[in-house]
Amino acid sequence: MTSLTSLTGKTALVTGASRGIGRATAIALAKAGARVLVHASKASQAADDVVETIRAAGGQADKVAADLRDANGPHELAKRVRSLTGERLDILVANAGISKAASIEDTTVEDFDNLFAVNVRAPFFLVQQLLPVLGDGSSVVLLSSLAARASVNNLSAYAATKGAVDTLVRHFASALGERGIRVNAIAPGVVETDMSNFAKTDAGRDFTLGMQALKRVAQPNDIAGAVVFLASDDARWVTGDTLRVDGGSKL
Q1: In whole angstroms, what is the distance from residue 222 CA to residue 244 CA?
Q2: Where are the domains of the chain?
Q3: For 4-20, what is the mean pLDDT?
Q4: Contact by Cβ (8 Å): 51, 14
Q5: From CA 5, how far away is CA 113, in angstroms rounded?
Q6: DSSP at 71
Q7: Rounded CA separation 54/224 (Å)
Q8: Rounded Cα distance, 217 and 39, in Å
Q9: CA torsion, ordered 251, 14, 235, 137, to nearest 10 deg
Q10: Is 188 tagged catalytic?
Q11: Percentage of the chain surpassing pLDDT 90?
């Protein structure tokens, strides 16, 4: 596996890596030379397929499972990661997330709590629990969204979680900079994944293209390349930032 960016000798954890952006990111990191821990919420064939894809191309990958919706999920995942990596993790991509399209009137307390549990609480405590193995030169990449800065359909609760992620990035970067840990976020627009099935319809495609400068629907690989950049030494002087990777959406 070859790439212009070298992550040889580094170990990465990608949460929510069985499909979509997470899957593309895990494969891209492995292509750049990293050993990748492929996380899924539970044992799944999709996660096994990602591991097999990486190994078949000559890369290194292992699967780890934990339900990040559970309050103790990040703690359990961190234990499993440390048992596999020993005393060093170089790259953490907190990609796992859920979405819920609903009006303000139709959003339930359960919806709201689930969104914040997976999208905000899980990455916060995963970073906390992995601090002992994140050291000088490590990179943490969180997943934000276009919805954090612009109104996009009925996503107010989801957007609030991504606004919280942008805030966490700045605070984490400030607090962890003395340890040589960089913290950034990627903010995609609409990407053709299971989370954005509407983009696969004619109406959804027209809506997406109508708000973008670049006139095509993004694919997971479009986002994965930016994650690899932030994880690499090429971005060694970038921290506390949210990088928009949205095709020029809502300019």
Answers
A1: 12
A2: 11-245
A3: 93
A4: no
A5: 38
A6: T
A7: 15
A8: 26
A9: 150
A10: no
A11: 85
Confidence tier at 132 by pLDDT (50, 70, 90)? very high
| Token code pair at residue 79 | 């234990």
Determine what percent of the chain is predicted with pLDDT higher than 70. 98
Give the DSSP per-residue string, 168-191: HHHHHHHHHGGGT-EEEEEEE--B
In DSSP notation, 179-248 reads GT-EEEEEEE--BSSGGGGGGGSHHHHHHHHHTBSS-S-B-HHHHHHHHHHHHSGGGTT--S-EEEESSS
Q: Which of 125, 158, 172, 229 is catalytic?
A: 158
pLDDT at 196: 75
One-letter amino acid at 231 equals A
Rounded to 5 degrees, what angle do the CA atoms 41, 42, 47 make? Answer: 85
Give SS3 for 18: coil
Topology (CATH) of 11-245: Rossmann fold (3.40.50)
CA distance linking residue 3 with residue 121, whole number of Å: 33
pLDDT surpasses 90 at 135? no
Determine the residue type at 28: A
CB atoms within 10 A of CB 71: 11
Pairwise CA distance, residues 124 & 145, whole Å = 17
pLDDT tens by residue, 71-83: 999 999 999 999 9
What pairs with residue 243 in β-bridges?
186
pLDDT at site 171: 98
Please determine, for residue 43, whether its predicted confidence score (pLDDT) is greater than 80. no
